[in-house]
Amino acid sequence: MQIVPEDLLERDIKEIEINIKGIDKIDATDTKRVMYLIELYALLKHKYTLDPKDIINDLKKISFLSSKEVESLERHLKEERYSTSIKQIFSMISHLKEIILDVSVFLKNGSAYHYGKIIYLKKW
């Protein structure tokens, strides 16, 4: 793949992974690391370029939220029931926070170590 670095990050992640795996000089561990960095870049870019007008489509992609919750929020927004919408958004955030802070999910996989208040998620 002949491409400048700036354009590489704009490619589809699966396409990049296929091309990286095709390079003999890169071992599996380094391939994982590169892919994690590219995925992190994509997530951060999406986070900071998020279009609030299209938030419902993004919420529908989140597996931690039920489609019922997202559809309810969409309905409240269309009906201009902003107070109810904000309460529902806070409820969703609270639910996501519980998931993020639930150490047992990571400890089951052996992929996290908990020491005091510091949680280190081991990706590699």
Query: How many structural domains in the coordinates?
Result: 2
H and E order:
HHHHHHHEE
Gyration radius over CA: 19 Å
Total DSSP helices? 7
What average pLDDT do the residues reach? 78
DSSP strand (E) fraction?
Answer: 5-15%
Helix content: 55-70%
Shape verdict: elongated
Largest sheet: 2 strands, antiparallel
Low-pLDDT parts are 112-124
How many strands? 2
Q: Give the class from helix and strand content and strand pairing.
A: mainly alpha
Q: Name the strands of the widest sheet in spatial order.
A: 1-2
Cα end-to-end separation: 26 Å
General description of the model:
The chain has 124 residues and is mostly helical. It folds into two domains: 49 residues, no CATH class; 72 residues, no CATH class. The chain is built from seven helices and two strands. The chain has a two-stranded antiparallel ribbon with strand order 1-2. A hairpin with a 2-residue loop joins strand 1 and strand 2. Helix 2 runs antiparallel to helix 3 and helix 5 runs antiparallel to helix 6. The radius of gyration is 19 Å and the shape is elongated. 2% of the residues are buried.
